[in-house]
Amino acid sequence: MTIRDEVWNEVITTLATEGEFRIKDLDLDEEQKYTVRRCLQEMEDQGWVTRSSKQSPIYRTGWKMKLIMNQASDEEDAETELTEE
User: Fold this and answer.
1) 19 and 60 in contact (C-beta within 8 Å)?
2) Statement: residue 77 has pLDDT above 70
3) Beta-sheet pairing, 49-50 with 20-22
4) Where are the domains of the chain?
């Protein structure tokens, strides 16, 4: 797995479980911080993460991640309803 893959996996997993994070919260090596920042910038540009301002150290769930999480939640609700009938 490449460092970028690790970053994307760690960010998406952390957002799904915590809802927000700081770079220091991610379980990644210190020497990967430059790659982490580049990946986060790309993820922010694509709507996966968001910050209240460019200076904010706190990353939160972006519109694209929210959309996917809502869709997954709707599918789980539908499966639960089917199994209960």
Assistant:
1) yes
2) no
3) unpaired
4) 3-84
Length of the chain: 85
Q: What is the pTM of this model?
A: 0.79
Q: In degrees to the nearest 10, what's the CA dihedral of 27, 57, 5, 70?
A: 100
Say whether 4 sits in a helix, a strand or coil: helix
Closest residue by Cα to residue 33 from 2, 52, 7, 68: 7
> What is the per-residue pLDDT for 82?
47
Q: Give 84's DSSP letter.
A: H
In terms of CATH architecture, what is 3-84?
Orthogonal Bundle (1.10)
What is 12-66 written as a DSSP string?
HHHHHHHSEEEGGGS---GGGHHHHHHHHHHHHHHTSEE-SSTT--EEEE-HHHH
Record the tokens describing residue 77, joined without a space.
Answer: 């609700």
